[in-house]
Write a structure and sequence with these properties.
The chain is of the alpha/beta class. Helices cover 28% and strands 14% of the residues. α4 runs parallel beside α5 and α8 runs parallel beside α9 (237-243).
């Protein structure tokens, strides 16, 4: 209970556990600020339980890390209960990934942002990587190939069920500009036997052949997103829907879908409950045909 001081309730009298509960509603940046109020608040603000969901991508509202050595120290003290985190390009290093693998056993969702990378770190000595991930997000660079890095982590990602690959759609200004296949999506998927969700957003090199390859031996797939993958015409969908019997959510927004191809698909035999085909310029006849055949649409 709150104690009274001069007839008024004061925040100084709140127990540490109550203050910690209050701080849990603050953003990581706000927790840093309240930690500057006094020594007691700083001690509470440093509690690992307040640092379970943290982004270190300053371009997207995350915390800016200016001292990597001190950051590595914090991984083993303040961030031991980390569950969800996002790393900017300069923080994706062998040492930091090794520390997270060793000191953050509860980490289940990891975002690796390579989108601003001009050059990768040397991952030759990378021997460890978080191995209990449920979700992995990779933000691609326009011209940095990730195979050298991924080759080191393939054996650690078998637990991943949700894969997000964020492409460079928003950066491509010229449609005829040369596009590089900066990640081997099919090979990456092979090391994720339990994958349920695949989200390829705005990946400029993704074609129907890639989607077809991804769907092979992917019996647990429930959600497939290929929004803004403009090289996808839909020719892969017939086989994808036959292979992935559990597929319920299909997102094809702004793909270059072909009317004739979409009309030949046996939609009535699928379990699709959610379909996104906005911005695809399909004809009204095709839209009517698809919608009327989808028995499970919600």
């Amino acid at each position: 209970q709150l104690q009274r001081c001069n007839g008024e309730m004061t925040i100084e009298k709140l127990p540490d556990k109550v203050l910690q509960e209050i701080f849990s509603y603050l953003s990581p940046y706000q927790v840093l600020l309240v930690g500057q109020v006094c020594r007691r608040w700083k001690s509470i603000a440093n509690s690992p339980s307040l640092w379970q969901y943290v982004s270190f991508r300053p371009n997207y509202g995350g915390i800016q890390v200016t001292n990597q050595d001190y950051f590595m120290h914090l991984i083993g003290t303040r961030f031991t209960e980390l569950r969800v985190t996002e790393l900017a390009t300069d923080l994706i290093t062998p040492n930091i990934l090794h520390e997270m693998a060793a000191k953050c056993p509860r980490l289940y969702a990891l975002t690796l942002d390579f989108s601003t990378a001009m050059q990768l770190h040397d991952f030759t000595d990378l021997q460890n990587f978080p191995s209990r991930l449920h979700s992995l997000t990779i933000c691609l660079s326009e011209n940095i190939f990730l195979e050298g890095f991924l080759r080191k982590v393939y054996t650690f990602i078998s637990s991943v069920e949700v894969l997000h690959i964020i492409g460079t759609y928003e950066k491509v200004e010229d449609e005829e500009e040369e596009v590089y296949e900066t990640v081997n999506v099919h090979k990456l998927k092979q090391y994720m036997p339990n994958i349920r969700v695949v989200n390829l957003w705005g990946v400029p090199f993704i074609t129907d052949d890639h989607v077809d390859a991804i769907s092979s031996n992917c019996a647990h797939l429930e959600c497939l997103c290929i929004n803004y993958c403009t090289k996808v015409t839909g020719s892969c969908l017939r086989l994808v829907l036959q292979r992935c019997r559990k597929l319920r959510s299909l997102h094809l927004a702004h793909a270059t879908l072909d009317d004739k191809v979409m009309q030949t698909i046996e939609w009535e035999k699928t379990r699709i409950e959610e379909l996104n085909i906005c911005g695809t310029e399909l004809s009204s006849d095709t839209l009517k045909l698809i919608v009327t055949r989808l028995k499970n649409l919600t």
